[in-house]
Design brief:
The protein contains six helices and three strands; from the N terminus they run αβαααββαα. It has about 170 residues and is mainly α. A three-stranded antiparallel sheet has the order 1-3-2. The termini are far apart. Part of the 50S ribosomal subunit. Contacts protein L32.
Amino acid sequence: MRHNKKFNHLSRKKGHRDSMLANMTVSLILHKKITTTVAKAKALRIYAEPIINRAKKDDTASRRQVFRYLQSKQAVSELFNNIAQKIADRPGGYTRILKLGNRLGDNAKTCFIELVDYNEALLDANKQAPAKKTTRRSRRKATAKAEEAPKAEEAAATKAEEAPKAEEAPKAE
């Protein structure tokens, strides 16, 4: 039975899977964006987000715990020095997965996985675009306009009837 066995094994044994996810996490921290398959990206998100979350508390114990997973001094220093400052106020959700399509060779679903606060294109777009004013749509306004339309047609019809009468009156004089 598979009770509480939810994570994806990615067709690898535990040692291979752990080292692959650690290497992918190091690449994600150093490059801020990597391209991979959707299955690996979902597994990477589960692996990397708790590690990134530990960087909020910058002390020796946290650095040692993160280094135990990553085994890269450069990635640990990048994580604690630069990334931790950007994610300090974020409660979670440090990564974003953007699907790309299928790979040509084996038709695998591919995607980008990136750190949320480092996508300059989206950050610039959010700063430049003003917040749209939302409008509420209610059914009353729609029914009120529908009721006004027949009234307007009736008013136009009565004006059309009055116009010939006005023309006939001067001819009689």
